[in-house]
Design goal:
Catalytic activity: L-seryl-[protein] + ATP = O-phospho-L-seryl-[protein] + ADP + H(+); L-threonyl-[protein] + ATP = O-phospho-L-threonyl-[protein] + ADP + H(+)
Domain RIO kinase: 66-305
Shape: elongated
Strand content: 15-25%
Helix content: 25-40%
Strand order of the largest sheet: 7-8-6-5-4-14
Bound molecules: adenosine-5'-diphosphate, magnesium ion
Distance between the termini: 26 Å
Radius of gyration: 22 Å
Cofactor: Mg(2+)
Oligomer: single chain
Protein name: Serine/threonine-protein kinase RIO2
CATH superfamily of the largest domain: Transferase(Phosphotransferase) domain 1
GO molecular function: ATP binding; metal ion binding; protein serine/threonine kinase activity
Largest sheet: 6 strands, antiparallel
CATH class of the largest domain: Mainly Alpha
Order of helices and strands: HEHHEEHEEEHHHEEEHEEEEHHHHE
Structural class: alpha+beta
Length: 395
């Protein structure tokens, strides 16, 4: 789903207030009745509320729904995108919007910049976009899903990703610095590097391999498993490391991204996820770099041995507000669809399962990952008077 920002600058403060009211009403109404929108938006704009509603519906930020009992409106993904962008703008997280650099399986990735020109990435989570169409069991699971729960899950994914990124960044893991989150979006540092899957050869595969296995083990010792640790979610940064013999030598530093599926080593399927992360890297190195390590493992048992004495980052994340209940809701969804890996070479889908419309868009556009913000678009927004209470949730 494209992020169409063309209407951003034309919304008035009252439009924003009404949009926020529809969002708030959606928390307990699948279809928000017009009088409720009016009530939440406040008496100040009583007279104009219908005009605002019609403005917002015209640009697709809310959609009219005829329900058996009453007519009303629901927030669209576009509306949620606008609310999130507006929060990031007001929180000074984002100043300008650049190109889309990635269409992940369940996200859209844009390069953005803050007021100082620092390049950042805006990740918009869009859960249920592709898996809904590709995996049969998902269709069964998602069949009765309301728009509200799609948004709920996308928000959960963003909240979880941000919570994990905060903790991992603080602990010095090589990941993009998290800058903020709002609703279904996370803003983080832009990493000027290619995903590992785009790299054809490396001078010392054994070094990169050891670094990656080292990361898997380090996470496990901190009670965590990435859960989708593969060539799509590892960016490889080239750092000049000149030596006397080789002045042009480069060091390759892996940077992890994509955290909504992280699990604790106490998760019931922890060992499975751990082994899958390890096996994915092994397989990739064999196929791509013709490299096989002499050493077996790493194994879950060894990696987690003695970890009880170390930092339990899973618990620290929980303490940040991402609760067990939230984790469970999201888990249930993630377990249904698997990780990026299930869409590429390692597909476990039974043959013949109707994958014909399985989108091959996964990460294709990341070829431009190094592109700078070249089509800057300032947020020339009319100052909003909407209720600021539910703003950038963590900046
Ligand atoms: P998904 O969950 O959809 O797989 P990812 O977080 O893996 O989303 O992002 C998809 C792609 O976008 C990545 O493979 C990478 O190429 C690019 N990307 C994501 N985050 C960043 C970042 N912080 N810096 C640079 N590129 C990024
Ligand atoms: Mg990914």
């Amino acid at each position: 789903m494209k992020l169409n920002t063309s209407a951003l600058r034309y919304l008035t403060g009252e439009d924003w207030r009404v949009l926020a009211a529809v969002e708030q009403g959606s928390k307990n109404h699948e279809v928000v009745p017009t009088p409720l929108i009016q009530q939440i938006a406040g008496s100040k704009i009583n007279t104009g509320v219908h005009r605002c509603i019609s403005n917002l519906a015209k640009v697709g930020l809310i959609a009219k729904v005829k329900n058996a009992r009453y007519d009303g409106y629901r927030l669209t993904y576009g509306g949620l995108d606008y609310l999130a962008l507006n929060s990031h703008r007001k929180g000074n997280t984002i100043y300008s919007l650049g190109n889309q650099i990635g269409v992940g399986k369940e996200s859209d990735i844009y390069v953005v910049a803050d007021a100082d020109g620092r390049q950042l990435v805006l990740k918009l989570h869009r859960l249920g976009r592709i898996s809904f169409r590709t995996v049969k069991s998902n269709r069964d699971y998602l069949r009765n899903r309301s728009t509200g729960s799609w948004m709920y899950l996308s928000r959960l994914a963003a909240q979880k990703e941000y919570a994990f990124m905060r903790v991992l960044h603080r602990e010095g893991y090589p990941i993009p610095e998290p800058v903020g989150w709002s609703r279904h979006t996370v803003v983080m540092d832009f990493i000027d590097a290619f995903p590992m899957r785009m790299i054809d050869n490396v001078p010392h595969p054994e070094k990169l391999y050891a670094d990656l296995m080292g990361l898997i083990v380090r996470l496990a010792r901190n009670s965590l498993i990435h859960g989708d640790f593969n060539e799509f979610n590892i960016l490889v940064k080239e750092i000049p490391a000149p030596t006397a013999k080789d002045p042009g030598a480069l060091r390759l530093d892996p940077i992890m991204i994509d955290f909504p599926q992280m699990v604790s080593i106490n998760h019931q399927n922890a060992e499975f996820y751990f082994d899958r992360d390890v096996a994915g890297i092994k397989r990739f190195f064999e196929r791509r770099f013709r490299y096989t390590s002499d050493e077996p493992g790493p194994f879950f048992k060894d990696a987690t041995k003695g970890s009880e004495k170390l930092r339990h980052l899973d618990i620290e994340v929980e303490a940040s507000g991402f609760s067990k209940k939230m984790a469970k809701d999201l888990d249930r969804y993630v377990e249904q669809i698997g990780g990026d890996a299930t869409e590429v070479e390692t597909s476990n889908d039974p043959p013949g399962d109707d994958n014909e419309d399985s989108e091959d868009e996964g990460n294709e556009e990341t070829e431009e990952a190094g592109a700078a913000v070249d089509k800057e678009e300032d947020f020339d927004l009319t100052e909003t008077t909407a209720n600021d209470a539910d703003d950038t949730e963590g900046a």
